[in-house]
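Hello, quick one for you while I still have it in my head. A protein chain has come my way and I'm curious about its shape. Can you walk me through what the C-alpha cells say about the fold? No rush at all, and the record is pasted right below.
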Amino acid sequence: MRICMVSEREYGCGASVAATRLAEEFARVGHDVRYLYGQKSPRANDTPFRKVQVGASRGQWPVRKLLGAMRRLGPAAWRGLPNWHMSRTVVKAIARTRPHVINIHNVGALIRPKDVIALTRLAPVYWTLHGCFALLGYAFRYVSRSGDEVRTAPIPEDRIDRPGQMLLAAGVPGLEFISPSRWLRDEMRSAGATCALHVIPNGISPRVFHPRDRDEARAKLGLPSDRLLVLVVAADLGYERKNVGVVVEAMRQLDSGSVCLIAVGGDSEQVAKAVPCGVSLGALADPTSLRQAYSAADVLVVPSLIDNLPNTVLEGLFCGTPVLGAEVGGIPEMVVSGKSGWLFDPLGPDDLAARLQWLTTMPAELTQTSAACAAWAGERFTAELQRDRYLRLFEIGMSSSGASAVP
C-alpha cells in the first residue's frame, strides 16, 4: 500500500513527532510511505521512509517575491494568496506520489479546505486531528490562569476559511477524521461536527521507550539519588499553554532537601534556575537520551492548561515513570489513579504541591504505580495497536473506492 502522509513540520512539534512515529510503523511492516512536509527540522532523525519537503524549490522564489510585494500593498491585495500558492503546491506534490491512501496531520497552514476535498478524487483521505483547527477554526481553547479565554490558531484570523471548515465538518465523501482522544472527538461533536470521526489513540513503541534502571540512569545524568525527582518535558517550556510556571510555583512550596525539578526542553535552564533545587538537561531530541531522563525521574508532571493526547505522557509511562497530569483535555484518558498516575488542578500550584508532598511520604504507592504503569500503557497505547487500527480503516476506504491494496 502506498501511503502519502503530510505534516506541516518535518519533526519537532508533538503532531509531527506522532506523524513520524506512525509513518515508521507503516514502513516497518512493508508499506510504501511518502512523507511530505513544509518546514524542515534540524532535530529530525533518519527514517525508513522517503521524506520530501514541499514549497522549498528555487523555482518558486519568483512567486514568493510577487506575493511579498502584494503583501506590502496591504491586506486587501494579498489576503489568502500565500495560502493558495502553498496549498496548490502541496496538492500537486501529493498527486505525484500516486497514493492509495492519503493521511494528513497538522496541515492548517499548508492546505485549504477546498483542496482537501479535491484530494478525495485521488484517494481516500484520512485527517488525523492534533487539535480543533481543521473543523472549528482554532487549535485549542482554554482558560488562562488569569481567567482569560485563549484561542490558538496556526494562521492569522483573516486567512482562516471558516465556510470551508464548516463544509468539512458537515461531512465530505472520501474524507474521514481520526481523533487521538475521546475528548477531542467530543469537542468536535459538541460544536456540531457531523463528519465521519474515529478515535484511535496515538501509540509508542516499547522497542524505543521502555524502563531502565533508575539508579543507573541517575548516575549517568549526574542527578541526586536522595530526593524525589520531578520531571517536566516540553519542546518549549515557556509556552503558556504548557503551563510550566505552575510547577515552578509548586516546587517553591516544598522542601528542596526532599524534591528536585528536572527540566527538559527549550528554556530548561531558566526553569531549573527558578526553583530551589533544579537541573536542566537541555533540549533532548534523540530517544535514547529521553528514555534515560524519563527512567531517572520518580514522577513526570504534565501541567498543560489544555492538551489532546500528549506524547510526553506516553513516553513517560512506557519508561515506567508515573504521571502527575492536569485534569484537562485528553490527559485523563491516559492518567488513571492507581494505574498510571494521578490528576491535579492546573490552575493553581497548591493542588500540585500537595500531590508532590504526598508522594514524598508515600514511597510504596509510588513504587507500586511505577512498576505497573508501563504494562498498563502497553495494553492500550502501543504503536502496533495504532498502526493496525489505521490500516483497517485504510483498507475499508480503499475497498469502498475500488482501489487495490497491493503496493
Residues 2-203+383-401 form a domain with the Rossmann fold fold (CATH 3.40.50.2000).
